[in-house]
Amino acid sequence: MVVSKANYAAFVNAIMPQATFKLHRSLAFDTARVIYDGDMPLDRQHVEAYLCLRYSRSPGMPKPPRQDPKSQALARDGALNPHPEAVHDPLFIGNPFFDPRDLVQVRYEMVRRHDAEGMSISDVASSFGVSRPTFYKAQGTLAVSGLAGLVPRSRGPKGGHKISAEVLAFVTNLRAEQPELTTSQCVAAIEAQFDVKVHRRSLERALARKKKSRAFPPR
Q1: d(CA 163, CA 201)
Q2: pTM for this prediction
Q3: 24 - beta bridge partners?
Q4: Is residue 190 within 8 Å of 202, Cβ to Cβ?
Q5: What is the signed CA dihedral for 173, 174, 177, 181, rounded to 10 degrees?
Q6: Tens of pLDDT, residues 53-93
Q7: Backbone angles phi, psi at 180, to 5 degrees
Q8: Cα dist from 52 to 46, 102, 214, whole Å
Q9: Under a CB-based contact definition with an 8 Å cutoff, are residues 46 and 12 in contact?
């Protein structure tokens, strides 16, 4: 029997459901033989075509999820919140303008809830699904660098860094302009400005050494 290319798929789909078969392959997987109870011999090409048709058309098979353009853009810029489901703040639940996937928006609103509306840090951290240190870091970064500081940047090395003279001068000038800044906020500002991590105690010791050297200059 000769089947045209146009009708091949329909032909295979029509004859295969009536056949009960077992597929035997050689060790090299280069041959296949079908044992069936129908009237027409089926070769390997028929079997593979049927399986392809059956599973590609099955309505029960889930389709791969398609990511929307905004999520793709946020992920590309490193600003996609990895845990949007943890954000339970009412603004992000009842208003489509507030997007829990947008890490910058989430961090800004988190800090604003506390600084502008007086919400406790514990409640803010719980409502936005973060730890208290994460809140303090966002608060310090926003205070020093503004909204731009909340935009994620490429991470530098994870290890400790020796505090350079440039970093120390930056912190000194920063504290001169904003004396109320805490050490933790200065650490956040250093990371935002130089893309390096320094430990709070390391910064405190470096500032103490600088203060001592100014009080007792070398002779």
Answers
A1: 11
A2: 0.46
A3: 33
A4: no
A5: -140
A6: 555 555 555 565 666 888 888 888 888 999 999 999 999 99
A7: -80, -5
A8: 10, 40, 79
A9: yes
30-43 tens-digit pLDDT: 334 444 444 555 56
Nearest-angstrom CA–CA distance, 142 and 185? 9
* Position 35, amino acid: I
CA-closest candidate to residue 206, choices 178, 165, 174, 177? 165
Instruction: Return the HEC string of the chain.
Output: CCCCHHHHHHHHHHHHHHCCCEEEECCCCCCEEEECCCCCCCCHHHHHHHHHHHHHHCCCCCCCCCCCHHHHHHHHCCCECCCHHHCCCHHHHHCCCCCCCEHHHHHHHHHHHHHCCCCCHHHHHHHHCCCHHHHHHHHHHHHHHCHHHHCCCCCCCCCCCCCCHHHHHHHHHHHHHCCCCCHHHHHHHHHHHHCCCCCHHHHHHHHHHHHHHHHCCCC
Q: Which two tokens stand for residue 95?
A: 């208003």
d(CA 15, CA 1) in angstroms, rounded, equals 13
Q: Which residue has the tokens 């503004």?
A: 146
Domain ranges for the chain? 5-57, 69-213
